[in-house]
Amino acid sequence: MLREEEVEFIAIRAQGAGGQNVNKVSNAIHLRFDIGASSLPDEIKAKLLQLRDQRVTADGVVVIKAQQHRSLERNRVDALTRLRELIARAAFVPVVRRPTRPTRSAQKKRVDNKTRRGLVKVLRGRVDTQ
Question: What is the pTM of this model?
Answer without folding.
Answer: 0.67
